[in-house]
Design a protein that fits this description.
The complex is a heterodimer of chains A (324) and B (140). Chain A has 324 residues and is mainly alpha-helical. In chain A, 75% of the residues lie in helices and 4% in strands. In chain A, a hairpin with a 4-residue loop joins strand 1 and strand 2. Chain B is mostly helical. The chains are: A mainly alpha (324), B mainly alpha (140).
Amino acid sequence: MIELAVYRQKLIKLYKHSQYRLNIILKFLGGLAFFFMLSSACAGALPASKKLVLVALCALITSVASPMVFLVLSMAAAAVFIAAVSVETAIVVFILLFLLFLFYGRIFPKESLIFIIMLVGYKLKIPYAAVIFAAIYVGARAIVPVGAAVIFSQFEYCLAKMVSISPTSGFSESTIADHTVEIFSYLCGEVYGHINSAIFVMAAVVIALVAGWAVSSLHINYEKEAGIIVTAAILIIGIFLAVIIGGAKVSVIGLPVSVVLSAAIVFVMRLFDDLPDYKSTEWVQFQDNNYFYYVKAVPKIHAFENEEQSFANEETQRRHGSEE
Amino acid sequence: MEDLRKIRAMVNLAIYDKHEGDMDRKITSNYRRDYVYKRGLSMRIGVFVGCAIVVLLYYSYMLFVKSADVFQLIGEHTFIKIGIVVVAVLVIYTFLCSFGYRREYDYAEKRMHVYEKRISWLNGQKPKHISNCKKDEKDI
């Protein structure tokens, strides 16, 4: 455990050393991975060079954009990539995402990122990491994005059928309205037919989220760890019940593995959380009546290290001096 | 050597200016009621547009997919029903968001207050309440 704490300290020091540059690089890499994943929706209909340029451009904007801009960009990118295979499907998907943005994203842009993280999690088979993380850090505000992500994932299989209804090869401006209505009616039919199972899964996930949030705000020892365990346990039990009672389509073997893996990931993230917030080195300037000040404010975590270093240097010099 | 406490205070002020300062100044440049109203209005317009899209989708579905009769679908009380639902949604959003925006304003104002206190201390003055909330109190 001590070794783990030492590694944690070293990692934090590394991160804090160049926090701003690292943040931008990490955002860029995250954006690159996310938009590359999103581009798989176009299923090769877009030339690789165009796809690459679009993905790189979106990732570049992500590295400097606010959460709100990122949300809008994600929506637009999803619509463009889907439009490459089916324009009508892109219209329907864009309308649904736009509604989610109007009703929730504009008001809670940061929390809306959980929706995107969870969809990425579904691709990586660890969606519950986002739920557990939201339970112990975000709380009730995460109910909407988590619920929406569960519903989206439950009806993700519809996307392939929607695309097949109106492929771009048969695209014509005169039939766009008919095909859009056809896709819309297919989607409504599917939602109407399978909404019960989706609601069961959503309810299980939301209950787990709320329970985890409640436990992690109890002001007891190891509250966050207890929150992780409670959320994971309720997720497993709740989704199993959703499978048995509601007939939800969830992998019975994969579920516990995925939940345990997600809990482990959040636990590791939690390790980096309970330290005091050492701010990165700041360069600031100000003035009073007599002076201009150009100040470099160094966090103590670095300052002590420098002091130790200078002390060691002084000691060496002193020894050399006494030897001479 | 200048007073170390003063330098420390100035460093804190400069760090605050560099990070949250601009945003907080933008928020507290409005009166609390104005800020909540402006943000709320923008939110209400968005939610209203969202409601309009949902209603449009519902009636399109009924007309084109379910092939419902237009005159049966749009009856005497249809618009009243739609109005009630939209107003209910708007009221819920207004209630929740007003609470959130007020809290956001209060936090910004608290930080600004500490900032102003530090500046007053640096200038050797007694801390003044310059923030808008206190102006409101004075006006009243």
